[in-house]
Each structure stands twice: as C-alpha cells, then as structure tokens.
Design brief:
The complex is a heterodimer.
Chain A lengths: L7 E2 L4 E5 L4 E7 L2 E6 L3 E4 L6 E4 L6 E6 L4 E5 L3 E5 L5 E6 L7 E5 L2 E6 L2 E5 L5 E5 L6 E4 L6 E12 L8 E14 L5 E6 L4 E5 L4 E5 L9 E3 L5 E4 L5 E5 L12 E3 L6 E6 L5 E6 L4 E5 L5 E5 L6 E6 L5 E6 L3 E6 L3
Parallel strand pairs in A: 1-28
Antiparallel strand pairs in A: 2-31, 3-4, 4-5, 5-6, 7-8, 8-9, 9-10, 11-12, 12-13, 13-14, 15-16, 16-17, 17-18, 18-19, 19-20, 21-22, 22-23, 23-24, 25-26, 26-27, 27-28, 29-30, 30-31
Chain B lengths: L9 E8 L5 H10 L6 E5 L11 E4 L4 E3 L8 E3 H10 L8 E5 L7 H9 L1 H6 E11 L3 H7 L1 H9 L2 E5 L6 H14 L4 E4 L27 H4 L15 E3 L2 E3 L5 E9 L4 H15 L3 E9 L5 E8 L2 E9 L7 E9 L3 H9 L4
Parallel strand pairs in B: 1-6, 1-7, 2-3, 2-6, 7-8, 8-9
Antiparallel strand pairs in B: 4-5, 10-11, 12-16, 13-14, 13-16, 14-15
Helix pairs in contact in B: 5-6
The chains are: A mainly beta, B alpha/beta.
Chain lengths: 333, 343
C-alpha cells in the first residue's frame, strides 16, 4: 500500500513533539511515557508536562530497556542507572568509563555488559560477574529463574549468575547481536551480523535459521500470546510463527505492512495480534496479523523510527525517531 | 545523471604501522594541533595518548569472519559496535581515527566499510595511513609479514625518523617501499612532522576521487634525486633505486582504447574471487565500449566497489588501466586477462 491508499488513519490522534536528540528507546514507566535520548537525558511525562531527567551528564546514552516499572539506561560514561517514573535515579553499575553495550532487566534484577565483562545484580543486591569469550552485544533474562542469555561471536551463552560452574554455550558461527527469549522460555532468538536471525530450541539446543533479510534485524517483539515473533530488517515486518513445538522450522513467515522502505522497529500490541511498525522513512503503521489491515499512525518524514512502545493496556503507543521527532498516540476509545 | 549528494558521512582514517614506528606520536600531533576539528579516536591501548581528548574509545580488535561464503571476508566487529555507538554522539565530533595494533592486518578494518550496511551509511573510509620507521623498516620487511601488509595496503605512508638514517639508507628504504607499493603518497618525516592535511581528509577510497593511478614516484617525486648509479642488479628509475620484492608486488596493465564490459566484468569478478586472498588492493579506470563516462573501481581482497564516474573529456585519450597490489601475483595471467578484455 501507499500512504495515500491507507483506508484509515489515526495520525490526528497522535500528539507530536520534538525531543531534541536521537531517541534510543521508548517505554511506559509506571504508566508515564518515557523516552531515553542519546544526549543522556530521559524525558518523562505526557507531551505537555514533560520532565527532563539528566541521567548521564555530558555523556551519550547507548542503550536503555524497561520492564514497565523502571527505565534502565547505559551510557558511554560507563554508568548503569535505574530511572523511576518520578525521575529518581539509582546508580546500578559503574564500569569506569567503558561503554555499556547491553542491558537486561527483570523486576529488581539487573544485568549489563561492557566489552566482554558481564555483570548481573540479583534481587538481594549482590552483583555477580562473568567474562564472555568476546564482546557481548545482547543480554536477556530467561522468563523464569535467575538465568541470563548473552550474545557474542559464534553463539550465545546461558549463565546462572548465582550458580558456580560453567555456563551453557549455544554455538552458531557468526556474530550474534540482540537476544530475546520467547515468553514461554522455550526458544532463544538472536539477531546476527549476517542479516539473519538465529534461534535455539532450548530443550535440545536444536538450531533454527531465519534468513532472507535485506538488512540486519535489530528489533524483535513477541505477541502477547507468545505465538508470533515480529522482526525488523525488511521492507515489511517479518512475523515468524512460534506456536508449534518446532517453532518456525519449515514454515514461512507472515509479512505485514509491505512498503518501499525498511522496517526499523516493531512492537506487538500487549493484548491483540496487532503489530506497530516504524520505517526508515519515519512512517508508522499498525497492522493486524489476521487480515493484514493497516492503520496509519505517523506520516513519513524526519528520518528513521528508532523507538516504539505500547503501554501495558495497549491504549497508547509512544514513538521516537533518530532525528529527535517523537509522538504519543492515544487510541480512540 | 544523479546530482543529489548523500548526507556527509563521517570520515574514518585508519592509522597503521609496526610497533615503535611512531603511530602514537602522529596521533598526539593530530590531537594537539590547533585545527579546530574534533576527533573520536579508537585506540587499542588506553594510556598511550598524552593528550586530553574527549572521545577516546578502547577497542579490542575483534576480527569476525562473515558467513557469506567468502573466505577472506573478515570485519572488525568492535568497530561496527563503536561506530554504532558514536552515532549517538553525532554532531559532537568531525572525524574518526582508528589506530590499529602494530601487528594488525589493515584488511578487516577496510572491509568493514565494504560489508556492513550500517557502517557504510554512517561513515566512510578516508584512507589507510601507515607510519614506517626509516631505520628499521627494511629489517621488518624481511622478518615481519605484518609490516609488509601495512605498506602494501597504505594510501599514505609516513616514513618517520628520517633523521636517524643516512641519505643513502633513506633512498634504500624508499626503494624497498616502492617495490611493494608505488602508488601510496610517501612523506618523509622526523617525529611525524608531516602536514596533517596530508594525513587526514584524503578521500582515498572515494570513487569520485580516483583521478589517476600513476605510480607516485613518477608524478610526485620532488625530493633530492640520487644519481649514484652502479649498485649491482638494481635498475634506476627517475633517480630511484628499483627493487623487486620477492613476495609482494604491484601489477599495472594499461592499453589505449575501450574494454568490452561483457568480457571485463566477468574477468575482474573472477580474478578477485579466485585471487582475492593474495590481492590486497586494486584500482582501475576503464573506458567501457559505447559509454561516454569513465568507469572506476577499487577493491580490497575480494570486495569490489565500482561506478560510472565523470565523462571522458573531448581531448582525453580513452584508455583502460588497472593496478593490483598483492602477494605472489600471477603477473602474466593478469596482464593477458586484462588485455583480452579489449573491445
């Protein structure tokens, strides 16, 4: 489709604003819209009453993740900081000026990496360290149990921070970047340097290759029922089926929102099989998986979409662009 | 003809050189000089830089093989990550300088700019600058393959510490360099006292800037020429001693007239695929049959980048030439292969 053919548009329901810096990540923190900006600032609140919280003074924000209660940010100042909805900051980690490359968060458990050094802070506040075989690019907590997945060159490693002994290595040749567990914990999926995704069925470490992307797939989002994985990196959102015990093995993915522009971010709605997708040209669409119906959220312009997040109920969608443009869509009741 | 220019990409200069040649001296000079530019510097060891620079990033030189069926396709994984991170500081620096370790092969760094789409979009390789020690280079070329690689790969060579050698030794080491790489721009220096403009902003990988590929000593040699003919087995070329390096050479082939693209394209692709392990760098300016524009290309190992450039000028002789620098190149095969591409 083209923008002109869009049958429906919610664009007028989106309140647009400018953040002033590359938007690194978006989240709703205790219900408040929050954007992590590359200039070290977290912007919290509705568009007309935002608070600018300086989290990494004079430094750059490299990465940020949220679980809906906390915004965990990592900077090129080596600091890992937990930001609350009221703007309170808790220093979590200090890597002495080394870049924070990856973060993970679940409840009061935090994990971060700088180069090969991975640290995990458990809920009791004790910090555990592990050194990866090469630089870690992605971290994720397993849905259950205090176990962390870390990606690196030639595979991923599953590490129990509180347990002595060798971590489990999942090998696959190549450089692995982002990482995500399926919500039921059965699968681990990584994005790769070679424009592909790789997956492991954890029960037997069976490999799954998901290829055919024209670009790196740097955004992964699971549907609320855990049966679908939406991914960026193509001229459509590529959505893989994970319902069966073999996951997407031997199955073709669905494509949503096919356009002449690269999808840069995807975010599944928290309650419905609707995926929000942002493109390299700034356009944002919602697409319903069942019938591929599309709704326009943002017209193209101002460069690539770099952040997308739904609130917990799926009533609001927050988005940000590399250019600093941003917006908050409230779905009409 | 497309007139739209893509947004200005961040230039990246790769600084190589064997241990002790003077890379850090050059880096400190670049950072301390009042040029008004801000540099992000990627170093392999912290603490060596004596200058307070806002953006100094430690690298791990992680060389990754790409799973794309190309055996020599390696990239610097850490550099991909660092450039991605530096883009979060866009507007706060003007250029990036990547210092490699003394034992590093420059190829993975250069290939990163051919292979990674995100890096390509954000940054461009400006030049490979190699610092060489006038006193010890000749020795290193004998015992350290890394040193030879760095010379062969270079766009700019700074022959440093020239005050520590005699004029005869200097001519000797320059001839050794020229035997490997006659195309790099060569500067003599003491304590790396070379004009920074000769090091940065070279656009050596810019296809638009491939104007000519004459050996540097034929066009730019303006130093005191040496006329002490008489060493056994050495030819003299415009006053320079001429050596043949047993291991690493350059092969240049040219002919007047056009090539047939239906022959040339398969030939250059096959050659770089089959010989890519041995070919470090290649460049060419080619007159394609029935094409009013010059076709230019350049490559690193198996990776090629080519495009139509400006039109041939009315008074310009349409000719086709290619240059390869590499290890154990099959000169006759390359020569015959290229000549067979004539239209």
């Amino acid at each position: 489709m083209t923008e002109a053919q869009a049958t429906s548009s919610l664009a007028k329901h989106a309140r647009l604003f400018a953040t002033g810096a590359h938007v690194v990540a978006a989240a709703f923190v205790d219900g408040a819209p929050a954007l992590a900006l590359a200039d070290g600032i977290v912007l919290i609140g509705d568009p007309d009453e935002q608070t600018r919280v300086v989290v990494h003074p004079g430094a750059a924000m490299l990465t940020a993740v949220s679980d809906g209660k906390t915004f965990l940010t990592g900077g090129d100042d080596g600091q890992v900081v937990a930001v609350s909805a009221d703007g309170a900051l808790e220093p979590v980690g200090d890597e002495k000026g080394r870049w924070i490359d990856a973060l993970a968060l679940r409840g009061n458990a935090y994990a971060w990496s700088a180069g090969k050094q991975v640290r995990a802070r458990d809920e009791a506040g004790a910090t555990h360290a592990w050194s990866a075989p090469s630089t870690v690019r992605g971290l994720a907590f397993q849905p259950k149990g205090f176990r962390l997945a870390a990606t690196h060159y030639n595979g991923a490693t599953l590490w129990f921070p509180k347990v002595e002994g060798a971590p489990q290595i999942l090998e696959w040749k190549g450089a692995h970047l982002d990482v995500s567990f399926s919500p039921d914990g059965r699968f681990l999926v990584t994005s790769m340097q070679e424009n592909a995704l790789h997956g492991w069925r954890l029960q037997d470490s069976r490999n799954m290759r998901m290829t055919g992307y024209p670009a790196k797939s740097r955004s992964l989002s699971w549907s609320h029922d855990g049966q679908w994985l939406a991914t960026s990196g193509a001229d459509a959102a590529v959505v893989w089926p994970f319902k069966d015990k073999d996951g997407p093995m031997g199955k073709a993915p669905r494509e949503c929102g096919v356009r002449q522009a690269r999808v840069t971010r995807v975010a599944f709605h928290p309650k419905a099989l609707v995926v929000a997708m942002g493109y390299a040209d700034g356009l944002i669409l919602l697409c319903r998986l069942g019938d591929a119906a599309e709704i326009l959220v943002r017209h193209p312009g101002d460069g690539g979409v770099s952040a997308l997040a739904w609130d917990a109920t799926g009533a609001r969608l927050l988005f940000g662009l590399e250019s600093g443009a941003a917006g908050l869509l409230a779905l009409p009741a | 003809m497309t007139m739209s220019r893509e947004p200005e990409k961040i230039p990246v200069t790769v600084l190589t050189g064997y241990l002790g040649a003077g890379k850090t001296t050059l880096l400190n000079r670049i950072l301390s000089e009042a040029h008004g530019k801000r540099y992000a510097v990627v170093v392999n060891e912290f603490g060596e830089i004596g200058i307070d620079n806002e953006l100094v990033i430690g690298a791990d030189e992680e060389v990754f093989e790409m799973n794309n069926g190309c055996i020599c396709c390696t990239v610097r994984g850490d550099l991909i990550r660092i450039i991605e991170g530096l883009m979060k500081r866009k507007g706060r620096f003007d250029a990036i300088i990547v210092e490699t370790t003394g034992l590093a092969d420059p190829a993975p760094v250069a290939q990163t700019f051919f292979v990674d789409e995100d890096v390509k979009e954000a940054a461009r390789l400006d030049a490979v600058v190699t610092v060489a020690d006038a006193k010890w280079l000749a020795q290193r070329l004998r015992d350290a393959p890394e040193a030879k690689n760095q010379i062969a790969f270079a766009d700019v060579i700074i022959l440093n510490k020239t005050d520590l050698v005699s004029p005869a030794e200097l001519r000797e080491v320059e001839a050794r360099i020229r035997a490997i790489n006659p195309y790099a721009t060569l500067h003599r220096a003491k304590k790396c006292d070379v004009d920074i403009a000769e090091v940065l902003g070279r656009r050596a990988f810019d296809l638009d800037r491939i104007l000519d590929i004459e050996p540097d000593f034929l066009v730019a040699e303006d130093h005191d020429h040496d006329h002490d003919h008489g060493h056994d087995g050495e030819h003299h070329h415009h006053g320079l001693k001429h050596y043949h390096d047993e291991d690493m050479q350059s092969v240049a082939v040219r002919f007047e007239g056009d090539v047939d693209p239906a022959k040339f394209m398969p030939w250059i692709n096959r050659l770089t695929q089959e010989q890519g392990l041995n070919i470090l760098r290649c460049k060419g300016i080619v007159a394609m049959k029935d094409d009013p524009k010059r076709f230019v290309f350049q490559g690193v190992h198996m990776m090629l980048d080519g495009d139509s450039q400006r039109e041939w000028k009315p008074d310009e002789k349409r000719e086709s030439k290619v240059v390869f620098i590499g290890r154990g190149l099959a000169e006759e095969d390359i020569r015959n292969g290229f000549l067979a591409c004539a239209a």
